[in-house]
Amino acid sequence: MIERELFRAGTAGARGCRRRAVRVASAFVRLATWNVNSIRARADRAVAWLERNDVDVLALQETKCRADQFPRHVFEAIGYEVADSGLSQWNGVAIVSRVGIEDVEIGFPGMPGWGDPPAPEARALGVTCGGVRVWSLYVPNGRSLNDPHLAYKLDWLARLRDAGAAWLEEDPSAQLALVGDWNVAPQDDDVWDMGVFADSTHVSPAERTAFTDVLGSGFTDVVRPYAPGPGVYTYWDYTQLRFPRREGMRIDFVLASPALAARVTGARIDRNERKGKGASDHAPVVVDLE
DNA sequence: ATGGTCGATTATCGA
Predict the structure, then answer these.
(1) Where are the alpha helices (DSSP H) in A77-197?
(2) Angstrom distance, A149 CA to B3 C1'
(3) I want to staple A102 with a disulfide (CB 3.0 to 4.6 A). Which of A14, A29, A128, A152 is the partner?
């Protein structure tokens, strides 16, 4: 981080200039994802968190606002660009970046829809930031094991796997990040008590297989090695005193392509951000790159 | 005690 501050401040000496030559190819170093549960309710908190944590690119989920309602100005005021999927009052995602945003794409190729508008494609937003393709994803909630929303969720994940495989086939050296709220707890340790989830979504074999299939198409969970369980979660229900009781779920993930995974130097889940009045029910997940 | 809490849109619904 010291090197990086020198680089940004332009105060590095001759030795720093050599570092700069190396750093040019690595346009950003800190990537995060956060289900904010309404960006309007959380704008001040999100801005304070960004500044405190020196984050370059932040993918947001559950923005819960139309494009015209997104509080762009508060992010632009601190030097971030904003891309917003903008179509849904409920399921929207966004990406804010201080290293620029290019090639904005709403919805991934083959992404299935659900019913009528508000547009289901708002669940996925792809942008390129500093040579890294970042997808902010809000995977559908299956609601319950017999609900047609679960079949939709499984289809959605299967199509995402297909898209991911196609991107990597086209360019095996691509730096791709699939980040967001996956609404899947892939391992038993990713919930506090499997007994509670016996007949619930998020832990069903079908959902876990769908998630694992995305990994199988060439992606890696780059956070788990730096934040191993058990007892490590990214979400705690507002009800039932779940957070103080440490009863949560690990359902937010950063999946990286091989070229991007090779750049990862660290990761953490910011559990502190779940504390206090005005918190989202999800914690931010942060990945450092070199 | 079969709820408990948020958020958005308006007495419910989704998470």
Answers:
(1) 148-170
(2) 26
(3) A128
Residues with Cβ within 8 Å of residue A9, at least 6 apart in sequence: none
Taking the model in full, what pTM does it have? 0.90
pLDDT digit string (tens) for A69-107? Answer: 999 999 999 999 999 998 777 889 999 999 999 999 999
φ/ψ region of A11 (left if φ > 0, alpha if ψ in -120 to 50, else beta) reads alpha
Total tally of structural domains belonging to chain A: 1
CA-to-C1' span, A240 to B1 (A) = 14
Protein-covered nucleotides of chain B (CB closer than 7 Å) are: 4-9, 14-15
Helix (H, G, I), strand (E, B) or coil at A105: strand
Interatomic CA–C1' length for residue A240 and nucleotide B2, angstroms? 13
Residues A41, A46: Cα–Cα separation, whole Å:
10
What nucleotide is nearest A281 when CA is compared to C1'?
A: B6
- CATH (domain of A182): 3.60.10.10
